[in-house]
Structures are given as C-alpha cells and as structure tokens.
Amino acid sequence: MRLSRYFLPVLKETPAEAQIVSHRYMLRAGMIKQASAGIYSWLPLGFKVLRKIEQIVHEEQQRAGHIPLLMPTLQSADLWRESGRYDAYGAEMLRITDRHGRDMLYGPTNEELITDIFRSNVSSYRDLPLTLYHIQWKFRDEIRPRFGVMRGREFYMKDGYNFDLTKEDALHAYNRHLVSYLRTYERMGLQAIPMRADGGPIGGDYTHEFLVLAETGESEVFYDSEITDLKFGDRQIDYDSVEQCQAVLEEFTSRYARTDETHDEALFDQVPEERRRVARGIEVGQIFYFGTKYSDAMGATVSDGDGNQVPVHMGSHGIGVSRLLGAIIEASHDDKGIIWPEGVTPFHAGIVNLKQGDAEADAACEALYASLTALGLEPLYDDTTERAGAKFATMDLIGLPWRITVGPRGLKNGVVELTSRRTGESEELPPEAAVAKIAAIYGVAKA
Ligand code: ATP
Ligand code: MG
Fold first, then answer.
1. 126: CA distance to ligand 2 center in Å?
2. Residue 380 near residue 1 (C-beta atoms within 8 A)
3. Residue of 114, 112, 122, 78 lying closest to 98 (CA atoms)
4. Which of 142, 211, 323 should be mutated for ligand 1, with most atoms under 8 A from CB?
5. Domains and CATH numbers, the chain
6. Can you give the pTM of this predicted structure?
7. Of the candidates 121, 124, 122, which has an alpha carbon nearest to the alpha carbon of residue 306?
8. Residues 80-117 pLDDT 10s
9. What residue's CA is closest to ligand 1, atom 18?
10. What is d(CA 318, CA 207) in angstroms, rounded to the nearest whole number?
11. How many angstroms does the Cα of residue 320 sit away from the middle of ligand 1?
C-alpha cells in the first residue's frame, strides 16, 4: 500500500476522552472512530488488524478440529424464553421489536441458537463429538462502556460450543479448547494466563479465564510468578489425544492463578512469598463446561447406543476478538506508539523515502516495494512529501515492526537502513539483504 493512496487519518493531538494507552493509540493511529457510546467504526488500519486476529483464531480453531459456521446477530426472543434467559439476562440485552410486534434481540451470546441448530439436526451419539464455532458481532448494553474496544457495547467475539455424549468427553473438549487458546494467544505475541474463574449461577469448577497482565486491566489477579515462565511454543499436539490435552491443562493450571472472584487467601499463602504476585489483567477469553443446562432446557438429546435418549453435555468457549486489539497494544507499546507483534501487524514493514521526488530514492523504494510484494508480504510505503521527522513519527505511532529507510546518502554507498520498532536498533545493508532479512523474519521464502 502506498500511503499517498491510503486512508490513514492519524491525529496529532491526544484525544481527551481516552483514558488508557490502547484507546489513545487506536484513535491517534486512525484505527477506529466512535460511532456512538461503545460502538465503533473500524477504519482501514484497525480493520486490517482485526482481520489478522480473526484469521489466527480461525486457523487455530480449525487446527483443533472445530467447525466454523455463522449465526445471525439478531435472534428471536422465543428461544431465549425456552432456556429461561430472556428475563434472566437483564438490562445488558438489547431488546428489539420488529414491525409485526415480535420480540427480537441483538445476541449477547449464542447458546440458545446453537442448541436449536443442534437439536434440529443431530439425534445420534454417532455424530458426536461436535464443536461448532463462529466469529460474530455481539451486543451487550454495558452500563459503562469504556476504554475503546476493550469494553464496547458492540464487540466481535469468537464463541464456540462443544456437544458431547458424556461429561468425560466434554471435559476433553474443554481441555482441547484450553490448548488451542494457548497457541492462539501466543501467535498474537501475547501471554494469556489461564486463571480459575467463577462458574456463576451454574457453578462448577470447569471454567478458566485467560488474562493478559496489564496495569490497566479491569480484573484483579493473584498468581504464582512461576506461571509466567510457561510457554506453549511450537510443540506439536494431537488434539484428539485425551492424555496430551490433559497434560497441557495440568501443566498450565497447576500453579496458583485466580481472579478476585475465586481468590482464596489461605491457598495463596501456600505459594512461597517471593513468588506471590498481585496484579491486574485483561480478560481475553473464557472456557466453560456447563453440562446439560441448555440441552435439558431445550431438549437437545441424542441416542446413546443403548436405547436411551440422553441430553448432550455442552460447553461454551469465547475469545474477545475485538478486545484483543486493545490488549495487545496495552502489552506492547512505548511512548511513541504501538509496537505490533509480527503475527498481527497490519503491514509487514514500512518503507520511508527520505527524499520523495529524487529519482534514485524513488526507484530504490519502488524496487523494495516490488520485492516485498512479490514475497507475499504487504509493505506500507510512505511516498508522501512530508518531512522525515513526521514520516518517522507516523511509522512509530502505527507500530509496524520493521522500517526500511531509504535516502540518497545511503544509496550512494549502496545501502538502506533497517530499523526494528521494538529495539530501536538500526543496521545499514544493501536493499536485497534488507528484503531477505524481512523474508526470514516472516518465514516466507525468497523467490
Ligand atoms: P467481562 O467480565 O469482561 O464483562 P464476560 O466474562 O462477561 O466479560 P464472556 O461472556 O466470557 O465475557 O465473553 C467472552 C469474551 O468476550 C471475554 O473473555 C472478553 O474477552 C470478550 N468481551 C466480553 N464483553 C466484552 C465487551 N463488552 N467488549 C469487548 N469484549 C468483550
Ligand atoms: Mg468471561
């Protein structure tokens, strides 16, 4: 993309309404624009990152064997009356009446709809196990939407639902989700710690929230510092293997890590004092096994092979896709702007032309642009006539991990400058070498 043809409405001033750094930078970098309280338009740069995050979520869900579909945002109230949640849900649910006077709602979550799809189509244990998921907009009329996309009213969520014959099978699905979530967040450059959470009115021990540590997080968390040494890394895992998934769950959940809802002072005191941490975190996901709550209420049963009809065991598992943009920025920025992890960056590298209009500099930039594009990478080429200082400030603000700076002086010596946004370190090297280095970083083969 050439910046002169892009739509990147960066702001010089810090917007007064933004209280936390991710919100400030998302507004300043021209990623989002508030449409009304807690509802945002996603401008091109923000939309690009949203799509990258969504793509990672899709890939990791499907790697785990989960099947994508798409359910609507508007739902009929009738299904929610069946489950008893139409009245129970309260003021967070946006209720709508259509022209025929029928009660509708903008879905805050999809247990009812998915259970209805399941019961209409599946009747035998032979069709299990089954996990269906979608990534769709949700609406919750939060009393205090704030912090930009972090706590919106309209937000983008991946929600997945497992259907299993037995509790044991459903717990394997639970573990499988935990494993796939660990991979998902790590690919985004995040450490998200599974913490024991509160099962709410349904209760039960089988729920974990995934928290990204950040001072601005809304949850208070208590954990054993050893847990931050754990990495999932690039280990190969067989998602069908009960043992392998169970082993990962045990590894990642055996140390103390809880939110304030389930915090137990006496247990926490058993952690050696020097490893006890009290901090804040951002909830970026939650997994939940809830048994037969919805299948009982809505009659989602299957034959069990012994002549009985039994309710299916279910769980639901969510990832806050739009919230993740805020969480990533909270975890990765400096005083100049965002620092995108390579896995989610909107453009792979920036190209800054220090002397737009200089025939040699222009040609060198065009050649870099063409080589990177030929590798399947997306460069953002600042081909405007802004001064160098302003170009650097914009690149730093929007946070592309790598920047190639091209100027007549370097070109005389046959070099350009490659700068890491994260470390600030620069090196001078021939243009082809800069391209090769970026190709290696992103794991794309040089043609
Ligand atoms: P919270 O406690 O933050 O209100 P929740 O526990 O009610 O969230 P879930 O039902 O678990 O939310 O939804 C799954 C994920 O969706 C959450 O882990 C979170 O990342 C995201 N999410 C929930 N509410 C919002 C919101 N208002 N804005 C943006 N993301 C949200
Ligand atoms: Mg939650």
1. 32
2. yes
3. 78
4. 323
5. 9-337 (3.30.930.10), 347-441 (3.40.50.800)
6. 0.97
7. 124
8. 999 999 999 999 999 999 999 999 999 999 999 999 99
9. 285
10. 11
11. 6
